[in-house]
Amino acid sequence: MAYARDHLDYDAEDGWSMGRAVFALLVAVLVIGGVAASVPPGDRIAIVIGQAAGTAALVYAVVYLVALRGATAGWKIGAFLFLAVIAGGFQYVRGLDARNAREQAEFLLVRQDAEAMLAGREMPPAPGLKPDTPVGVIRVMLRSLQREQRAYEKSMTDSGIHALLDPAKLGVNSAILRDCTATERQRGRVKQYRTATERLMNDTRAALKAMSGMSDTATAMDVLDGLERGMADNGAENARRWELGDQALVELGAMCRVLARRNWRMEGEMVGFTSDADLSAFQAVTTRYNRIFDEQSALEQAMQARAQASLRKLPR
Question: Is the per-residue pLDDT at 207 higher than 80?
Fold first, then answer.
């Protein structure tokens, strides 16, 4: 007696069923998904490929024993490639999610560092920080910029130049009045500060370009661009910012030379001059200095606004 086969895709000679093979592959997809969820994701293509190949080979071995022993070579190869693609897809998505989470956390640190620098606070400690990733490059640069800034501020404090702006505290015997050339030396220090700052920015840009293949390089470059826009909106504005700093020191030097003649005394909170010529000279230099200071303040406010706008684009 002859019986009709329940499955038309069943091959009596080979002893395998296409339906069973398809079902086994669908189950294998679920297994691969579970394996992918339990394996730490990789964020580099070589790691993703290795994880995908290993998972696919492991699952394929089971599928082969269950449903593919009698299949054609085409089915066997196709099944393995199918599983490899599925495994690769799962690992890629997992790796992408992990990379995005890592980058978000790292750029949060960049944001915190930049906000601290802009506010004049010390940045949080970062032991072991290295410039071997785009984020590391940016964070190392920020700390280097802050060190240069602190060194410049210390040189200004040590010079005693700021005492010229408060004659009530200056006193006619102040050390700065005996050495007005300190303002000229500080002008040279400003040039050093500018050179160091521009070198840091240029070196950072070059380092990021060398890392162009890394996933977070573009975002790091955006951060650098934002910081540069914060420092100056364009080349002319940048030059003007440094020029104003130099001009301010020139006027402070002129102020020092007037006060060094000691034809003045404090009358309450006012400076009273015993020489009309020195009074006129002091008023003229004070007017010029205040004009420079006002322009510097406006540039500083614009810088802060642009820098904060750039930082708002980073993760919180």
Answer: yes
